[in-house]
Structure formats: C-alpha cells, structure tokens
Sequence to fold (282 residues):
Amino acid sequence: MKKFSIVIVMLVCALIVKAQTNLVKNGSFELTNPIIVDSLGVDTAGCYYDMITKIGYENMVLYSYFFGDENSTTLGEIPCLVCSQTVLFGGSAKDGTHILVLYGEDMPVYFPSWTDTIHLVKQGKISLELDDPLSEEKRYKLSFWIKDPPSEVNTCLKQKNNYVNVGISNYNNQLGRHLITTGYGDTIWQEYTYVFETQNAEQYITVTAGVNDTIDYGVFIDHFVVTETEEPLTTGVNEGAQQEKQLVKIVDILGKESSPNATGLLFYIYSDGTVEKKLIIE
Fold:
C-alpha cells in the first residue's frame, strides 16, 4: 500500500511540473552568446551590451527577434542587455542575472521648409519564441515583469513613466494579437498576468515599448512565462487602459499638419506610436 501511495504522489507531482513548464524558450534573457556581439562596446564593469543592429541583437539574445526599424538605430530603438548591478542599474534582475531594456523615442523633427514640427516615433519591438505553436485545446497564462529604470541610469535610457504592449503572433516580425498593455512602470518590479486562448496557433510572444511624449526613454523587462492553465479567461479592461490609442495629428507628405478633410497622401500619427498611411482621393 505504501508503494502504491508513493507512485500516485509521484504521478501527481509529475503532472503539476508538466503543467507549469514555461513555454517561452528564453523568457528571462539568460540564454545569450556574448562572444558574438555587434556592439558599440561592451562595458564589462557594468555588464552592459548595447546592440546596434538587428543581427547583433539576435546573435546575442537567443530565441528572440528584433522587428523595429533596423535602419534607425541611431534613435536608440534596438534593445540593450544589462546584468544585475545594484549601483549602475537599479537592482537585480527578476529572474537570473540579465535584464532586457526596451526603449525608443518620440523625436521632434523640424526642417526650415516645414511650417510645423512633427514627431518621429520609434518603438523597440521584440518577439520571444515559444517551444511549440499554441494548442486550441488548451488555455494559457502569460506572466511577465516590468520595472522603471532608476534616475541615475545614464546609458541607453533616461526617463521614467514607461509601459509595454504584449501580444501573441504567428510571426517573429509582427505584433499579432494584442493581449495586454501595462500601466506605467515603477522603480520596483511589477508583475502582470493575462489568461487567454489561442486563435491561430501562435508561436511567439511579442513585446513593444509604449510611446509617450518623453524623449529617449526605456523600461526594464524580464521573466516572461507562458504556462498551461485552467484559470478563467482574463476579461474587461486591462491595467493599461489609460494608454488607449488616440489620434495625435495628421500630416501630409511634407510634414505639414493637415485636417481629416484634406486630400492626397496623409499620415495619421497615434499616441501608441503607430502611423497609418492613407491616400485620400477627392
């Protein structure tokens, strides 16, 4: 009878472990290849890696892909990776020793021929590969952590009040279906969770930096976990509702602000950093 009971306990434990297996291959950014670094330089004292190209990022951070504007790296769109250093980077990682910094810019651009300044919005965007495509027969729980950078950080990020958008996708270069927008970050780690079902057997978690009117900003992200669950689906408005997409302005091809009634090629610029191009024919 004792042997039988032990076998049952072992089977139950095995099932629990299986159900809690993280499906994200490199959700804490610990799988890295520091030998292959396309970088501005490696700060070995602070353990800071600033990748300046898509290839540099993907060679170093395994099972993760950058899908921002790789031709605009001078605007600080490609993420950087830092190790846990209490003094330089405001405390330890949430899991392991590495933290990814996702950042971007809302950069005012002005040329003398223009009558107004426009904002060139750039977002850091990454995807994280899952072990297998999600199954329609199962329900999943996503959890992750964000943290606002401390004020003393003066490397690839400077300002506070940052947030991220997280989704699931079939492709490593598209946001896919949006799941959750976080609230503004704080200087302590904050966890966010979301229970969902797949709609198209997605295979990537996608993360984009939020965009506000703060120039040159960043947010720490760490410990992305996707597990099977039987918890109820997340419903209602998520905690980032205050960041609902809003139209900021409309500009023409010359960067001049236009009205919705104008004709020609127009660019609709939204508060979440997205830009819609519309050709209006009278």
Notes: DSSP finds three helices and 16 strands in the chain. Residues 14-18, 239-244 have pLDDT under 50 and may be disordered. The helical segments are 2-19, 54-60, 86-89.
